Amino acid sequence: xxxxxxxxxxxxxxxxxxxxxxxxxxxxxxxxxxxxxxxxxxxxxxxxxxxxxxxxxxxxxxxxxxxxxxxxxxxxxxxxxxxxxxxxxxxxxxxxxxxxxxxxxxxxxxxxxxxxxxxxxxxxxxxxxxxxxxxxxxxxxxxxxxxxxxxxxxxxxxxxxxxxxxxxxxxxxxxxxxxxxxxxxxxxxxxxxxxxxxxxxxxxxxxxxxxxxxxxxxxxxxxxxxxxxxxxxxxxxxxxxxxxxxxxxxxxxxxxxxxxxxxxxxxxxxxxxxxxxxxxxxxxxxxxxxxxxxxxxxxxxxxxxxxxxxxxxxxxxxxxxxxxxxxxxxxxxxxxxxxxxxxxxxxxxxxxxxxxxx
Length: 358
Description:
This protein has helices at 25-34, 37-44, 48-62, 79-111, 129-139, 153-161, 178-188, 237-248, 266-274, 285-290, 309-312, 315-325, 327-334, 350-355, and strands spanning 10-14, 17-23, 67-70, 74-77, 121-125, 146-150, 167-173, 194-208, 229-232, 262-263, 280-284, 294-308, 339-340, 347-349. By secondary structure, the protein is α/β, with parallel strands linked by helices.
């Protein structure tokens, strides 16, 4: 089976040059992480001389350097270099789910023209760190026929109810809001007909600037003058959870500065806070750590799969369960701040799962 991966490239043009200049942002990211050009060149598989030639060429094109060397402190990105790395992170965070879905659609089109390709099990899932890790592991096993598409929590449940997919990946909060969230599940699915498969739990809360200079410690602080947020998109499970938390605290979200400004992923929200475009955003701890932000934990959520009983017996779903029970998945998830995998791969009736952790 053919696999497709769509990636972005950055090509710049100027009024003084008819030729475009391609900047390898991943190499700048390596410099930012490694702190030395030699280490970054080694990671990128290029010679030290070639690395400096690239850096010099980019500096000539832009009229100012993207990296600087400091005696005893290695190589660092300039503000321009840092801005390019942030812009690439923001782009990937915002467009990653859409590019993934386009790639899966193209794969399906190609598969329809190739004989003897077995049917694929359709998985519709929220976009998140745990699901991305599962997707990476599934991509390493060509015999596992699962077509993963990203969409909102609600849309995934609606697809499952309409039999537009065989398995859905969704999330559900612990605590007092669980009953309300479970009610929306029951309005679409009969819990007695479905099974749940544990994936992970995650911490979700407020992502704030490093050091939390404005002392944003709870939702009430978001109403303070001089504090603005970046929100999640309408219809996403995270936006619904945020609005329910605000309602529980009797806070009118429309009175919070920035409430109408939205991004479509946790990482994109974090990228906005990291670049001082907002003081806070609601998302998972892993996104906060990725962008060197502080985090105020508000809620723990279950991330899990839902499917009908017959789908559990399919070879692809059985292999999926095996993957998330395996030590490789668990070891991978241990590197994600705020995630735990104690129930990974545990199968139980959806009705029992919905009533847990209330």
